[in-house]
Specification:
Distance between the termini: 61 Å
Radius of gyration: 23 Å
Helix content: 55-70%
Number of domains: 2
Largest sheet: 5 strands, antiparallel
Strand content: 5-15%
Number of strands: 13
Number of helices: 17
Low-confidence stretches: 1-6
Structural class: alpha+beta
Shape: globular
């Protein structure tokens, strides 16, 4: 079956800005039309949902074409704003993980030649015509280097330069959407954290260094497999690493794996997140399913894409886990004070907000209630009640900005939770809380 013609993402800042504002105008126009209908009692829930779906498809189409920071922001919206949008719309936004245009092989080869020089570029043989993977800021091709299979990640031209302008426009659009939904939420910290992460992801030499560091840490567990970097064949816009085989996580889940395999891999995923945050303070914060392969022959999880690694200091982790312990021990005043120290809540908030803050922490800590072991990750009641308590808290807050230190950490935590939910995991979490208590009590 012939492949569809693919066009590269635009490098023009003017074009990208116009495209984003055009998308915003179209979506806002549909939203205003819906609100007018509601005002005059002509609102139809089915038509309203259809319009929301159309809005989401417009968003996905525009962001897929632009890629880069714009597409990353859309991916974030599909995860972080899930509580504010209908599930049907969220499912459309999450298609951003799996689609988008790509560069033709001729342009890929030119980038490699320019970045590595003709001599080194010539040593990369049998470069695949089609990419074996494509993401928001680059695509990956298979090749051979000295007879070894390698993966070569190539960054889209102009992506790094477009980060600042893309995020400025998207922040304005996002705040307009929030105004239409009558929510007064500051997104300044969110976009500042996203900016830092995107600038880091756009530097492939830095990613190569992070990948090497992470690979050394991951050697402590044979269940985790990390690619090897070929540093002489890396540049700020080209990253060459060992090619790692395996089945995409989504495909493996669809293959109806045995209950024993589901239990085994679910524990390995949970161990991975716990070790990253609790032991190392080095967390790969992108939970995209495409970043994980399952290798059943060696009983391993292959980990991919290390551009979004974030570091968390010992002081931050100590306070974070002490909040958990205080909630677990029902020492709510101490949990509240530590929450203030972490910037999770402002001391000026009302007594009602303080009570809702404790309620939210208590609800979200339910997985560590010893009476509920093993914890069932498919428990929809837990998810619904946690979401409800979070929304109640956010509506009550007047002074507290979104805690930027948690944005990407909890993005990863939420992704791991969703993976475990997909695996129908039931895990006794007592050993984890006991390790936390032993270190931080």
């Amino acid at each position: 079956m012939p492949s569809k013609k693919k066009s590269p993402p635009s490098q023009s800042t003017l074009f990208r800005t116009a495209k984003l504002f055009g998308m915003a105008a179209s979506v806002a126009s549909q939203e205003i039309t819906t609100r007018i209908g509601e005002k005059f009692g002509k609102s139809d829930p089915v038509k309203k949902l259809k319009k929301q779906m159309n809005q989401a498809h417009e968003l996905v189409s525009a962001l897929s074409e632009l890629k880069g920071a714009a597409m990353k922001a859309g991916q974030w919206l599909g995860i972080e704003a899930a509580d504010l949008l209908p599930p049907e719309v969220v499912s459309v936004l999450r298609q951003l993980h799996d689609q988008g245009s790509s560069l033709p092989i001729e342009q890929v080869q030119k980038i490699i030649n320019r970045e590595l020089g003709l001599d080194k570029a010539g040593q990369l043989q049998e470069l695949s015509v089609e990419p074996i993977g494509s993401a928001s800021i680059g695509q990956v091709h298979r090749a051979k280097l000295n007879g070894q299979d390698v993966a070569v990640k190539v960054q889209f031209p102009g992506i790094a330069k477009a980060i600042e302008s893309d995020l400025k426009v998207l922040r304005r659009i996002s705040e307009s959407f929030l105004a239409l939904s009558q929510r007064k939420v500051s997104l300044k910290a969110v976009f500042a954290e996203m900016r830092d992460t995107l600038l880091q992801e756009a530097n492939y030499e830095l990613e190569a260094s992070l990948l090497t560091e992470y690979g050394q840490l991951a050697k402590t567990n044979s269940a985790w497999r990390v690619p090897t970097v070929y540093s002489d064949f890396c540049s700020p816009r080209v990253l060459t690493m060992s090619y790692e085989s395996g089945t995409r996580l989504s495909d493996w889940l669809a293959s109806n794996p045995s209950p024993q395999d589901l239990a085994y891999y679910s524990e390995k995923f949970l161990d991975l997140y716990f070790t990253e945050f609790f032991e190392w303070g080095v967390v790969q914060t992108d939970p995209n399913f495409a970043n994980f392969l399952i290798r059943t022959d060696t009983r391993q999880i292959v980990l991919l894409d290390f551009g979004a690694i974030r570091r968390y200091s010992e002081d931050f982790r100590r306070l974070y886990f002490q909040v958990m312990i205080c909630i677990h021990d029902q020492q709510f005043d101490k949990a509240y004070e530590k929450g203030i120290e972490l910037g999770w809540i402002d001391r000026r908030e009302s007594k009602e907000a303080k009570a809702l803050f404790i309620e939210m922490l208590s609800q979200s800590s339910r997985p560590f209630d010893f009476k509920q072991m093993p914890f069932d990750f498919t428990d929809e009641r837990f998810l619904n009640e946690t979401r409800a308590s979070t929304i109640k808290l956010v509506k009550q807050l007047k002074y507290t900005a979104p805690p930027h230190s948690l944005i990407f950490l909890h993005r990863k935590l939420g992704g791991i939770y969703f993976i475990l939910k997909s695996m129908k995991a039931k895990i006794d979490l007592r050993p984890y809380i006991e390790k936390i208590r032993a270190r931080y009590s």
